[in-house]
Amino acid sequence: MRLLDALSAVLRPTESNDIGVPATLLVLLWLAIFAHVAVRLGLIGLYKLHYWCTARVPALTYQGNDIMLQIVRDCSLLRAPYHPTWYLFNGHLQTAMVAVEDAEPHVSYRRELFELSDGGVLSLDWVQTSSVTTNNEHNKPTILILHGLAGGSHEKYVRAGVVELVNHGWRVVVMNARGCGKTKLVTPKLFCAAYTQDVREVTAYLRKTHIPTSVLLGVGYSLGANILTKFVGEDGPTCQLTAAVAVGNPFCLTTASHHLMGSWLYRRTYNNIMTKNLIDVVFRQTNACEVFEDHPVVDLEHLRTATNLREYDDRFTRLVFGFDTVSDFYRQASSVHYIKHIAIPTLFVSAHDDPICVHQGIPYDDCAANPNVLLAVTHAGGHLGFYEGPARLPWSPAVVAEYCNAIYRLVAAGSLPAVVPAKAEDPATDDDMEVCSTASSSSATDDEAVVVRELPKRELSDPKLLDELTDAVTATLDDALDAVVEHATVDNLLVAGVATVAMYLFWRRK
């Protein structure tokens, strides 16, 4: 109180004590600068504290062979802490931010309609850059992107990935599934998590006409990640892709379905919203109503009243694709059964707090048993969110770009083939399937040097961690003197000066 009384006496002129305008302004100026710097220091301190509490290195699961070790060395982001945006503090908020409409980044596409062997049509959106030569270059390293449920090349997470890859020099093409991305439906068949023939035909087409011998990677998001994983596993050593990336893969549709039906909240939010999106595809976004009007087994009016994904799949998907029950469809569509057959380098990126593709479905053991698989699990990120830092920068696109660049360097060095000769071979069959489980019966042998990094935990009762926190707070205080000098720039002084004049005029008015 003595300090406050002294400042009050100095700043309040009286008949016996008229300090004068210049001295008063000087004192107020220093007080304003102090307040300005104090606010910034407080924000810096809070940011550092949040970083210490929330930034964690992703949990990596892989075998220590030469290829995987080199990939991990080249992917610096997988070895560095991922720091989620402070105000997106759980998986629900990260996921909700993905759904927020955003015009940026803008991507220009050139559409190519592709006719499938059964008469169906999908669209390939080729990313257009400022270089026409690059767009049309033959045998240029290319990345094929598969979108998520009822999505398309317009989705924000797709555009974010496209921009990052293009900035690294890649040619990118997005495959819009049947009926998606404003693609007209011509046959009574939409997309399906279990159906991989479309991506197989597109890959063969790209190899034949655009990328015969160069690097061709597949990148899938959410449902597209499941389809891509299943395709890569089905084709095994004959897969025509060089490598693959699956972001936000549900892995086991049975587990995901049980989770989304497990509580009233999930049924009314995620489950209900995704079901409405699928119904919109059938009844509003495409001409599916016309195509399925006389379908022998699909009842459109019954489909219109579906309130959850299981009802939608029971009334539509399983009937169109010939499955006896929804449970049978989910079992055969789950990509977890095909991980053991993957024969090309494949990266899985998942978030432990994903509210849709839940962590209970992540097949750690299956990934550890396959020498071609690298699994990265972050502690946060939601479903396809992975926003990082105060600027809300997307983390996963940068990770995907690093991985693709690492694959390209391996091919350039002769350590990895860009493409294997195509030959007929039976894909994985239903006999290979088991009930979905994260505790797979398959395990790696002792000489395979499996590397499994668990998600780190923070326990304040640990003296070592308490010492870390003390060091972090001390470092923040040590930055105070530097910050006073750093923030005493012209713009900050102007702000402080304006505040000082305003304070003085207000005080003199009294």
Automatic annotation (TrEMBL):
The chain crosses the membrane at residues 26-47. Keywords: Hydrolase, Membrane, Protease, Transmembrane, Transmembrane helix. One of its GO terms (biological process) is proteolysis. Residues 141-390 form the AB hydrolase-1 domain. It comes from the Eukaryota. InterPro entries: AB_hydrolase_1, AB_hydrolase_4_sf, AB_hydrolase_fold. Belongs to the AB hydrolase superfamily. AB hydrolase 4 family. This is Serine protease family S33. It comes from Achlya hypogyna.
